[in-house]
Design a protein that fits this description.
The complex is a heterodimer of chains A (220) and B (739).
Chain A lengths: L1 E6 L6 H10 L3 E6 L10 E4 L19 H11 L4 E4 L1 H8 L6 E3 L7 E9 L15 E8 L3 E3 L2 H9 L3 E5 L10 E5 L5 E4 L19 H10 L1
Parallel strand pairs in A: 1-2, 1-3, 3-4, 4-11
Antiparallel strand pairs in A: 5-8, 6-7, 6-9, 9-10, 10-11
Chain B lengths: L16 H11 L5 H10 L2 H4 L4 H4 L8 E2 L2 E5 L6 E6 L2 E9 L1 H6 L1 H17 L4 E11 L5 H21 L3 E8 L8 E11 L14 E6 L9 H5 L20 H16 L5 E4 L4 H12 L3 E5 L12 H6 L5 E6 L4 H10 L4 E8 L4 E5 L2 E6 L1 H5 L15 H6 L11 H12 L8 H4 L10 E3 L6 E4 L7 E7 L2 H6 L1 H18 L3 E10 L6 H21 L3 E7 L3 E2 L2 E2 L3 E10 L16 E5 L10 H7 L11 H13 L6 E4 L4 H13 L3 E3 L5 H6 L6 E5 L4 H11 L3 E7 L3 E4 L3 E4 H16 L2
Parallel strand pairs in B: 5-6, 10-13, 18-19, 25-28
Antiparallel strand pairs in B: 1-2, 2-3, 3-4, 4-7, 5-7, 8-11, 8-12, 9-11, 10-12, 13-14, 15-16, 16-17, 17-22, 18-22, 20-21, 23-26, 23-27, 24-26, 25-27, 28-29
Helix pairs in contact in B: 6-7, 6-9, 7-9, 9-12, 18-19, 18-21
Classes of the chains: A alpha/beta (220), B alpha+beta (739).
Chain lengths: 220, 739
């Protein structure tokens, strides 16, 4: 599959995401925030970083980037879209996903190896995992605390849309939520970074690779 | 400017009377206020190295080559550039941002990172990692609670937003840094040989383009006011002299500049750091083959009320200046537009030999650029061995009361493990992104940071920064050598071959002959050590006036060593990796307790002579460690806190304990800080091979014991459970600084 990775001004993990897509057995295509063009990709990844500096609310400006018109249309049409960290924030700001990400409860940027439990493997991005599987990947952000109103949280739980939950809540996220999906399951937002856990050499193991191999099994 | 008889404010700008007279002599007239502003910032201690260049020049006597090749650019450029093979070159440099970080911790530290990153970028390199050696007052001092969280958040806030992994550094506490914290910032960049760019304005008719952030009123006089004078405890607030950083703009500037390099559009380039436009215009023109004409009113401003002299002095961040051939200007501007980076042609290279600057048609600067950039004053400051040095050295820590029983030794280990300088630093380092870019092979708390620079060949580089200011106080010559030796050893411990050093020399007031002697001795020590180890100094930075009133900081010559490793997948990790492996101590342990953490923590004592420096032994040890890649299953340097600390840290890495037997006096064995030592492990079946390797290099190798169990067990003395050691080690920073 061809997976487009969008570079916004201030994107930081775009090259890492492209590497992860390649190591996951798919073709990475660089997409530019200013183009109204998805270059014929089959899936889109919004990477981590500080788009536009995130001096306003995180992701609040990026959602208005030209390329997002096409990303939002494609997502509503069922294309797999994964937002990691800043990408998750952009998906929330775009209303493709409910809720919001606010400042960590400890008020600091935190970079650590974090264990999650995969709770939903029916999405385009998590089908390589077993439900209940524990994976250790990298969590690194200043504003990663997931919040939503009780009704939304209950709905996410009831519909099985909590994709991953933290083992030990590192940032005050409500109900320990690390990632969620939309109703259709094609759009996933994830606060931690699976693209930093794809090689034993340069991260805490290879537990993150499944997010990038899942697409391949989808194609079959 | 309008009244020729009015006294000019040269003293307020930090100039001395004879310097002002010299400026008048160079120009043959009274300087304009803009010229005075330029000279004042460029002749400041920070920019001109006027007190130190007589000592620094000895570094250029060291052969400009590394163990693997020639240097591609050396001292005098923004940063030195080294050949690391496979067509790659690496540049690295460490700089200080001490005084701004005391005044405004967050912005001071943030812009320190920003400045060094632009230095690396200006060489044509992609920045790939940063490191931050930090020094603070006592951990429990009220002002540390103000300064430390701000500095750490600033380092993280800026570096994280640039997407640069922070792979190491230091956090050291000492009372002398209370009113004068040190924020040193290091950046490593990678380039292909052919991409090297130098800061010079050549080619008559080429255009001078200023691009990046707009110029504002921030940081005016930062170098002359902040970096070049002692803080007066009750002096006026100097907050306006601290720059404010915008890391998002810097990230755009990095990507934009790299794209401009790739397109081959620059003839010369310079970043704007200390002294802003004064520095960039005069240095570019001075290094080129002609003059330069600049129309200052074209500079995009954030504050339209700024006067020309303020524009020339402003240290607004995130700006670069490029020299571009006229035919390339449109392409240059198109790349800037793509990245939303503002760019303006502000001048051109001329065939004269003057730097001419106009302001709305009026000539405000007409100077020989070299006189501003390079021909500043040179001071031969008086220096002399301090009257107190002999008494200090006579007061050795070897005479202090020591723990005698196993129980007392155990208690001492726990006390040291929990002490501010030896405790877990993850409260700090967890605020830095160490994973971004996906090439971080080693990062804190490993002995060195290691980055992969080629995903196909696995070529990598490794960097460590070190300095024990307590040793440098006891003997600045050997203290500087010990800093170099430790950093050199740390790089080798990971399996990389040490190639070169960059230094950040943090000292007190050069007007104090005691301090000046410390500085001279440290420089002499570094030069002699580099000659003996066969590695060059690629550049660095000097920070003076680090003192509060009469009290200078510990002399702190921070030394960064860069090494290369051909295959990062074979690097040697820090800390025990599995149970049942044989533990060896490499190197010789002497009874060396003066300046040690034990003397500091247990007795609050600083006196005596620092550990012996044996550079031949360091070199042999490094050769062993580099050759031992693949054989060694782990390696960890022995330094602050001695063998006890190394064993505890090695055990904590993966919760794998160790049982050791130490020979001789167990206290000396555990707490002496003799240099030139590393704890290594090998598979049981490789013990003999290791001993042969050690014999080949003439390195003493003593079998200490075996990894395994859940305690640090010193046979016949004590057993300290890992859980207890971890609890003590991890609690210190959170308990003082908050969770």
């Amino acid at each position: 599959m061809k997976v487009g990775v969008v570079t916004f001004p201030g994107s930081l993990d775009d090259a890492d995401a492209r590497r992860a897509v390649r190591l996951g057995g798919n073709e990475a295509v660089a997409l530019w925030h200013g183009d109204h063009d998805l270059k014929g990709v089959d899936a889109v990844l919004l990477p981590g970083g500080f788009s536009y500096g995130d001096y306003l609310r995180c992701g609040a400006i990026a959602r208005f980037a030209p390329v997002m018109t096409e990303v939002i249309d494609a997502a509503r049409g069922g294309m797999p879209v994964l937002g990691i960290c800043n990408g998750f924030q952009i998906l929330c700001e775009s209303h493709l996903l409910p809720g919001a990400l606010i400042r960590n409860d400890h008020r600091k940027f935190g970079c650590l190896d974090q264990t999650l439990v995969i709770e939903n493997n029916r999405t385009a991005w998590t089908s390589s995992y077993e439900v209940g599987q524990e994976v250790t990947i990298v969590l690194k952000n200043g504003e990663g605390s997931f919040v939503a109103d009780e009704k939304t949280l209950d709905l996410l739980e009831a519909e099985g849309r909590v994709v991953a939950r933290y083992v030990g809540n590192p940032n005050g996220s409500q109900r320990g939520i690390a990632g969620i999906s939309n109703e259709a399951g094609n759009v996933v937002g994830l606060m931690p970074h699976p693209e930093h856990a794809i090689e034993d050499l340069c991260g805490p193991g290879t537990d993150g690779l499944g997010f990038f191999t899942s697409l391949g099994s989808l194609a079959v | 400017m309008t009244d020729p008889d009015r006294e000019q404010p040269w003293a307020d700008l930090g100039l001395k009377a004879d310097e002002y007279a010299q400026i008048r002599e160079i120009l043959g007239r009274r300087p304009t206020s803009s010229e005075l502003a330029m000279y004042s910032v460029m002749w400041s201690e920070h920019c001109s190295y006027k007190s130190t260049k007589v000592h620094l020049k000895q570094f250029s006597e060291i052969p400009q080559e590394t163990p693997v090749g020639k240097m591609l650019a050396g001292i005098g450029e923004n940063a030195g550039v080294l050949d690391v093979g496979q067509g790659y070159a690496v540049t690295f440099k460490v700089e200080s941002h001490n005084h701004p970080s005391f005044v405004e911790p967050y912005q001071g530290a943030a812009t320190g990172v920003g400045g060094i990153v632009r230095d690396i970028l200006a060489m044509g390199a992609r920045p790939v990692a940063v490191m931050d050696p930090l020094r603070f007052g006592p951990l429990d001092a009220p002002d540390t609670a103000r300064v430390l969280p701000g500095i750490v958040a600033g380092v993280g806030g800026y570096g994280n937003c640039l997407g640069l992994p922070n792979i190491g550094g230091e956090a050291v506490f000492d009372a002398t840094y209370l009113g004068n914290p040190l924020v040193n910032a290091l950046c490593i960049g990678v380039l292909r040989h052919e991409d090297l760019h130098l800061a010079k304005a050549s080619g008559v008719g080429n255009l001078v383009i200023l691009y990046g952030a707009r110029t504002g009123g921030d940081g005016i006089g930062g170098v002359s006011v902040l970096a070049s004078e002692t803080f007066d405890a009750d002096g006026p607030a100097k907050r306006p002299s601290v720059q404010v950083g915008d890391p998002f703009m810097e990230k755009l500037l990095i990507e934009c500049t790299l794209e401009i390099f790739a397109a081959g559009l620059v003839a010369g380039i310079q970043d704007l750091g200390g002294a802003g436009l004064s520095c960039a215009t005069s240095e570019l023109a001075s290094a080129g083959d002609g003059g330069m004409h600049v129309e200052l009113d074209r500079v995009p401003l954030r504050d339209s009320t700024l006067a020309p002299e303020e524009i020339l002095m402003s240290e607004s961040q995130e700006r670069m200046m490029a020299v571009v051939e006229p035919a390339d200007v449109d392409a240059f501007m198109a790349i800037c537009a793509k990245w939303d980076v503002e760019a303006v042609v502000v001048g051109e290279v001329t065939d004269g030999d003057r730097l001419l600057i106009d302001w709305h048609g009026e000539r405000v600067v007409d100077v020989p650029p070299r006189s501003v950039a390079h021909d500043g004053p040179t001071y031969h400051r008086p220096y002399a061995r301090p009257s107190w040095q002999d008494a200090l050295q006579a007061d050795g820590a070897e005479a202090l009361p020591r723990p005698a029983t196993g129980a007392e030794l155990r208690e001492t280990v726990l006390k040291l493990v929990a002490s501010p300088n030896l405790c877990d630093k993850s409260w700090i380092t967890d605020q830095y992104d160490r994973y971004v870019q996906g090439n971080t092979v080693l990062a804190q708390p490993a002995d060195s940071g290691m980055i992969r620079i080629d995903e196909e060949t696995n070529l990598g580089v490794s960097v460590s920064t070190d300095c024990n200011g307590r040793f440098a106080k006891l003997d600045p010559y050997s203290g500087a050598q010990l800093a170099l030796a430790e950093s050199y050893r740390n790089v080798a411990t990971g399996g990389a071959r040490p190639l070169a050093i960059s230094d950040c020399l943090n000292f007190g007031s050069p007007e104090d002959p005691d301090v000046m002697w410390q500085f001279a001795e440290a420089c002499r020590g570094l030069k002699d050590a580099c000659l003996e180890l066969g590695i060059p100094v690629t550049g660095g930075n000097v920070s003076l006036y680090n003192q509060t009133g009469e009290t200078a900081i510990l002399p702190t010559p921070v030394v960064a060593v860069l090494g290369v490793i051909e295959d990062v997948t074979k690097r040697t990790p820090t800390g025990f990796q599995s149970a049942g492996e044989v533990v060896f101590l490499l190197g010789e342990t002497r009874e060396e307790l003066s300046g040690s953490e034990w003397a500091n923590v247990v007795h609050g004592h600083l006196g005596g002579k620092p550990p012996v420096v044996d550079l031949g032994a360091e070199k042999a040890l490094a050769e062993l460690l580099v050759e031992g890649v693949g054989l060694l299953t782990s390696a960890h340097d022995v330094s602050d806190g001695g063998l006890a600390q190394t064993l505890v840290e090695s055990a904590l890495a993966r919760d794998i304990g160790v049982i050791v037997t130490v020979s001789g006096d167990p206290f000396v064995a555990l707490f002496s800080e003799s240099a030139g030592r590393v704890v290594v492990t090998v598979d049981h079946s490789d013990a003999e091979r290791l001993q042969e390797l050690a014999a080949k290099h003439g390195v003493p190798a003593a079998a200490l014991g075996v990894t395994g169990s859940d305690a640090i067990d010193v046979d016949g003395q004590f057993a300290l459970p890992i859980t207890e050691a971890r609890a003590a080690w991890a609690a210190t920073l959170p308990s003082i600084l908050g969770g």
